[in-house]
Amino acid sequence: MYSPENWLGSLYDGNPGVKRLSLLLAFIGIGFIPASITSVWSDPRQENVRASLRHEVTVTLKLVQVYVTDKRGNPITDLQKDDFVLYDNKQEKQITEFERHVLALPKTTERSVIEEPVKRVLSSPPPLLNRKFFLLFDLVFTEDKGFRIAREAALRFMEAALLPTDEASLLTFSGGRSLDVRRLLTPDHGAVSKSIQSLTVADLLDRVFPESEDLPVRIASSESASTSDFRPSSSDGPSETRILAGNFIWALKSFAQALRYVPGQKHVVLYSKGIKPTTIGRGPAGGTYSELSRGYADMCKDLAAAGVSVFPVNTQEPDTTIGKGEATLRETAAATGGRYLGFAVNAEKHMETINDMTGMYYVLGYPVGETWDGRFHFVRIKVSRPGCETHAQPGYFNPKPFSEYSKLEKEIHLVDLALSGKPLSQDPMRFTMQPLPVASTPKDNLIFVAEIPRDVVAGIVGPKVEAASLVFDALDEIVDSKRVRVDLSAIRLDRNRVFLSSSLSARPGTYKCRLVLRDANTGRAAIAGASVMIPEGGPDKLLIFPPLLALEPAATILSGMPLDGGEGDSSGAFLIGHVFLFDPRRYSPYIGDQLLLGDVLLTSVRCVAPSNDVSGLGISVRLSSQASGEEMNVPLSILEKRDGEGTRAFLARLEIPNVHPGLYKLIFVVNDSRSGFSSQVTRKFSIK
After folding, report:
1. Are the CB atoms for 79 and 362 separated by under 8 Å?
2. What domains, with CATH codes, occur in the chain?
3. Number of H helices, E strands in the chain
4. Do residues 419 and 411 touch, judged by C-beta distance below 8 A?
5. What digits encode the pLDDT tens for the residues 304-332?
6. How far apart are CA 525 and CA 515, in angstroms?
7. How many other CB atoms sit within 10 Å of the CB of residue 80?
8. What tens digit of pLDDT does each residue of 107-118 get?
9. What does the radius of gyration of the chain's CA atoms come to, in whole angstroms?
């Protein structure tokens, strides 16, 4: 099986234990008999079989969608169940379910052949399988004009090419390692069309760029990459174009894995100009980037194995000669059993081609033992009539419980949870975190503090819960990650609040921060997320970092053991006490946004002084009304100062004054009496 560590590890820095993966899991769920679809023809015995299967928990019905053509590619429309022979892992199976669908009028077929089945559409029961279309807009490797034309072509396809029984979905690739799900698979074509209409050229502006002819060829070795290795500049690693190409490959590979449990053939209409072959290491500029080339080929194989056929529509202008990605588009279509449709201007031809290729199909069903082993079953279908060619999904994967996932599959699951706004594998619980930069340079200059509410503890109770802290950059690369195992089984829900902390490393910049709690046995998860900006330091800069607030009484601060021999936080209480100075045996972190009149808070604030001289640093606090703009000074009692190399940490006590309820900002100001510099940071609250 293709191992992603080969080429993916060479593209990115970060924790080698967490590769750049993303997974769109289960658009429809792991089921074998979809509902709410209209049938053209079905075996009259199928209702009896369905009724018996409802009471049989050890047997499930496996469905296979089959396209049959003659030697010229014309569909064969009049086959019966006895004309088919089906093998599952070389064992002949009894076909108990049979449907024949004639959904389009092929040019070479006489109307009399299909007229009667069409009349029976309204009175027939729902079929076992229908057509499924995924409209995928590449918002990175595309062009403005081609995108506009493609969007209109997609709308015409939705209006004129689909039947009421078809399901459609809208996806976009925006540069990260996951596809953005704009609309889940649905028979509501109007909803999908509205989502297509919502796509604008503004969605392209951040990522549309020409693929350069002279891209850098130096790349970091995956063997030397670690959480403490940071690229000093873009010239020391792969270009942004190649990183995005790698992300595209991973997004499509993850998409294929998500669809491998969905029965039947899935059709992807890909609107893209394609990736230039030299970008993935083909031609004279190969060599170093040949892993990308192999990754692209494996991506196509994975799509085919999952029963996904790709129909690319080229969004490049037809008369453009620079940077053509037509070759990769054609490769994807050929490898998956789809067809390259040409340029977006030929919308009418696209609709005819897709309907000709997908409009006539058969559904074969047979019972199989329900085995949750995750193995791939090869399926082969023969037709007894001479001159017929069959086209079907090469096989299927058995599902399996989360506890039996491979290490790689668990990493895919983890990063999908972290990156997807709406993870399709489950509806995870949510909780709150605060990422706090405490220095401008690594190491351990970013602290995560998260509160785990009672419903999360109750929903993920167990001694084997993984807590994964991850930092992602703008291209969804993992900058740093740490994972520990925590025990939630011993926590008393009627006692103190529960917190978890972690320390990570990142250079100055803006990042997405995620904390994922996941039960090691069931995969049930809870997610916290926030963004953070780590400021750039310098000899003439005075920096103040966001404060951590604390309240009485004390809380339970979880400790964790590192997983897989990696680095991790062995004592969360020690980390909070050491970095933020307050005693976690008396106080608990406060990362919420609601305060009460008269609340007494501890605040921990860290500063970096110009020229590493902290002797002149002092701190003050103001309260500002967001409604009126009025400000007042808040008395501050300094409890402790701790100086480091060019840094000073303050621990102080403050009390919320008697003000009208509303929205306010606490403004923390640090002044340097020696240099005259001043800097400030704010926290927003509602006061009741």
Report:
1. yes
2. 5-27+132-358 (3.40.50.410), 46-120+362-392 (no CATH), 428-687 (no CATH)
3. 12, 34
4. no
5. 888 899 999 999 877 665 558 999 999 99
6. 10
7. 11
8. 444 433 333 343
9. 29
